[in-house]
DNA sequence: TCTATACTTGCATTATGACGCAAGTACGCA
DNA sequence: TGCGTACTTGCGTCATAATGCAAGTATAGA
């Protein structure tokens, strides 16, 4: 191998898809599904902007849907890791999981950037 | 006003929700809906890992659904700004919009962090 | 101009998700 | 132990989305 090492040719999409990379683990549909519905997004924004733990009843006052619907959306958001639920007596306080959320978003951004050929992504190799 | 300026008490969720903040503009359900379906996610990962423009036919080889389904998902991904479509003759090449995607994710992470009380988020004020 | 290729679109079917109501559970307090 | 509050869960209905087939459009090349 005396030849100068050149960038490998990009793989076919089929080859690329078969290879497991960082973004496969990061692109979780369940996570993004949390943010994919207007009602849920407004609940997240409500809790985030409030900046403290909010009860289901308080949050339900912010939107026009039924209390039970809010309860279900909040439970889903907690399951998908966007919110955290803490029970105090009869009341459940929801807070945004800021640290985990920000980390997830940034890690995904980094992983995507690694795929970008213009940013030195070695997609012909194995970084993605 | 000779009193020492103290952190304002957090607003009620209702007050917080009524106030418009950066994250309201950033949490677009349509954007996240793109990532909320397993088939779409695998298409995105396929194109990203491939690292070059991929045709609909090539991408369709990577997953088990019908060609027409792939075509529709790709069109949706292009509409929501995740992919870019470029037509060369009869062939449409899809690429990941790395820069815009990474930027969106990081801006959102920053905005969320601004809401976090522990990170100095002034949610009792008007940053969120 | 004809044909093959590459993709899109219309349509019917099926699956999933959102919603509201009502009933149920959990918990604090008298 | 009984009652009220805070929330969850079961269920039926409706809306949206996903899917596959078949037909349609666009374009390159013979």
List the helices and strands and how they pair.
The structure is a homodimer of 128-residue chains.
Chain A: H1 13-18, H2 22-26, H3 29-33, H4 38-50, E1 54-55, H5 56-60, H6 67-79, E2 83-88, E3 91-96, H7 98-115
Antiparallel strand pairs in A: 1-3, 2-3
Chain A binds a DNA duplex (30 and 30 nucleotides) through α6.
* SS elements, strand count of chain A: 3
Helix coverage percent of chain A: 40-55%
- Uncertain parts of chain A: none
**What is the CA-based Rg of chain A, rounded?**
21 Å
Any idea what the CATH superfamily of chain A is called?
Winged helix-like DNA-binding domain superfamily/Winged helix DNA-binding domain
State the CATH architecture of chain A. Orthogonal Bundle
- Counted up, domains of chain A total 1
SSE order of chain A, one letter for each helix or strand = HHHHEHHEEH
Task: Tell me which protein chains meet in the greatest interface and how many residues each side has.
Answer: A-B, 60 and 60 residues
Portion in beta strands of chain A: 5-15%
What is the overall number of helices of chain A? 7
Give the structural class of chain A. mainly alpha
CATH fold naming of chain A: Arc Repressor Mutant, subunit A
What does this entry look like structurally?
The structure is a homodimer of 128-residue chains. By secondary structure, the first copy, chain A, is mainly α. The first copy, chain A, has one domain: Arc Repressor Mutant, subunit A (Orthogonal Bundle), CATH 1.10.10. Helices cover 51% and strands 11% of the residues of chain A. Chain A is built from seven helices and three strands. In chain A, strands 1-3-2 form a three-stranded antiparallel sheet. In chain A, strand 2 and strand 3 form a beta hairpin. Chain A is elongated, with a radius of gyration of 21 Å. Chains A and B meet through helix 1, helix 3, helix 4 and helix 7 of A and helix 1, helix 3, helix 4 and helix 7 of B. Chain A binds a DNA duplex (30 and 30 nucleotides) through helix 6.
């Amino acid at each position: 191998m005396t030849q100068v090492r050149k960038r490998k040719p990009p793989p076919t999409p089929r080859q690329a898809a078969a290879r497991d990379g960082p973004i496969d683990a990061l692109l979780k549909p369940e996570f993004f599904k949390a943010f994919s519905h207007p009602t849920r997004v407004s609940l997240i924004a409500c809790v985030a902007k409030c900046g403290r733990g909010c009860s289901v009843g308080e949050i339900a006052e912010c939107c026009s849907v039924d209390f039970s619907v809010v309860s279900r959306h909040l439970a889903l958001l907690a399951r998908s890791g966007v919110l955290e639920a803490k029970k105090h007596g009869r009341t459940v306080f929801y807070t945004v999981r800021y640290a985990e959320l920000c980390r997830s978003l940034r890690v995904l951004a980094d992983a995507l950037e690694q795929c970008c050929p213009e940013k030195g992504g070695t997609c012909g190799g194995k970084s993605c």
